[in-house]
Amino acid sequence: MLLLSWNVNGLRAVHKKGFVDWVGTASPDILCLQETKASEDQLPADLRPLAGYHTHYAAAEKKGYSGVALYSRQQPVGVSAGLGDPAFDREGRTLIADYGEYLVASVYFPNGKGSPERLQYKLAFYDAFLDRMEHARRRGKHIIFCGDVNTAHRPIDLARPKENETVSGFLPAERAWLDRVIAAGYCDTLRALDDRPQLYSWWDLKSGARARNVGWRIDYFFIDAGLRHKLKRAFIMPEVQGSDHCPVGIELAR
Length: 254
Prior knowledge:
about 25% helix, Deoxyribonuclease I, Chain A, 7 helices, about 250 residues, alpha+beta
């Protein structure tokens, strides 16, 4: 089973750059998108639905902001948007698809750079999301969650860790949440299989950082420990253009 996740930085924008053809070539079983920046009624007709997929969208109340999507070849038992808290849900950051035995969550975690208040919002969102996943695990569900976490976990996960020690996205409190996730029994799928440096998923466009591979790994797939034996492959797709992020993916044995 192939799962891909991509912060597209505007679904309508990436649609103009060959998104539908890319999906056809990549052929994921489940595709999770973040920062779609559109409600479903604003999307081109060939994305409503995308041929061959059951399509689900969650949009922010604010136009052209945030938003997530989930495309699935198999129809989920159910799909829920949000975490049950209006403070988070009005930003359209979470879709959780229930496949019976397991959940798949497409999540666009907040960015904390705007202000101290936004950093606190980000940390509160982190906690609320992990609580939601842990509640599902206690009910016997396996968990797969992915998306733009907006934090690089370790120094190996960004090109310039020293220069960014005081920048949101690499702050101790943000990184500590990822430590908690792993301590709770979730697996960072890429690092479980590949501990090489210079594996990044986001680059600053204005500085031309992508050409120099001066980037950050802030897009992840996590699975719970009970799925670890099914993990066959975890990878980043830096060759895929169209956004300031590139897709990330995993392959699980069925």
